[in-house]
Amino acid sequence: MKSRIALVVALSIATVGPVAAQTKDANAEFEKFRAEMEESSPAELFEAKGEELWKAKRGPNKVSLAESCDLGQGPGKVEGAWVKMPRYFADADAVMDGERRIVWCMVEKQGFKFEDIAKKPFQGANDNNAPDITNLVTYVASGSRNMAFDVPMHDPRVRDAFETGRAMAAYRAGPYDFSCNTCHGADGKRIRMQNLPNLSTPEGAIRGVQGWPGYRMTGGVMLTSQWRMNDCFRQQRFPEPKYASQAVTNLLTYMAGNSNGQMYKGPGIKR
Amino acid sequence: MKTLAMISGVAGAVALLAGCAGGPSRSEAEYRQLALDTIKRDFQAKGQAKFERLTADDVQQACNAHANTPPADLVIKLTGAQLSTIKLPADDKYLGDWKEGEKLAQSGRGFTWSDKADQPAGGNCYNCHQIGPQESSFGTVGPSLLGYGKTRGNTPEMQKYTYSKIYNAKAFNLCSEMPRFGHAGALNEKQIKDLVALLLDPASPVNK
Question: Which residues of B touch A170 (CB under 8 A)?
């Protein structure tokens, strides 16, 4: 597995290269390469680590998530949970996406401090290892591989998160007057050579959640949807969304809800 | 976990108000307000991206409230006000150095929380526009500007319009997706002139 990842990184540098050198061919080549790599995805390594973490008794309370964390399908049950989130959790009285829910379990069940998890929730380009939360998310997401999205949109609380997410995606502010929709509001748009999914359509929304969490070839790091939202707000020239906040859940509800009925292929590979 | 506890209260209140199954239970305006409340609660300043950036100005507010198509009277009022923000060059010269303009058009730097506040911003133009024929990595959020000067003509009126458009795109199209580079303080007079040259100078590769 190690050597395969090294190979991915080497090839990714060769294939993707600096932005200025990218061409339409590079896009096509990447797609081919991604399809090949997905057969034996580097995400598996992170899944395996996540499974270990899920089953281990951890934190001040020395309990495992496998015995204590309910993702909506019963305590510890991972199968099919990812594609049914975001959903409403009565014990937290909140709509939560998968990552936020796992964080909630780590805090409420295992006794970790939220501040400690939120201090560095994403793998940086120079970090050898992904944070525990990323591994856990990857494991949980892998439990829904090849299952259709089934976000409970009939729940009015989920619907409210969805509609609020839609309104957030249209909110323009900041020095460049950008909203998500500036870049993701119409079909067939690109920033440089990067194709931008139109998040308001089912076809675009599924591209927004497909392959996340994903092994990102730029930098060779494993990253989650929470990271993707964070980095797009950076590009939007906004301040930073707080980690695992309702704001991020709302946007993920908007995208996952719009993807209902379409198949999630599991943790993937990203440019 | 304070943040999550706080959010919980909101979800509870939401649940009580919500109607039965099916569609949205509130008006679009209510969701817009909810979105704004959420944004103001759940964001934090980072680097140069201060919290105040979340507050929409009058143009942004009008576009947000009307799905980017405000009523005509509001459009007339606000585009007029935006037009009056444009500072034209005192020397009445609009064509700078297209080579410098090309460099600016290439640079995507500026205003993100990872950009240093004391570093000058780039133009970001290629992120959204096709411009020079040699650059195949261009975005399509905006229209192609290849051949711009050749088709539109390098007249004094076009020079003034192009300068003004880059300075404040909203003076011509209130809810344009293009930033207001002069108005926002992203580009100065010399830089905008260089970009005008890139687009209009007959010697620029854009017009070859």
Answer: 35, 64, 67
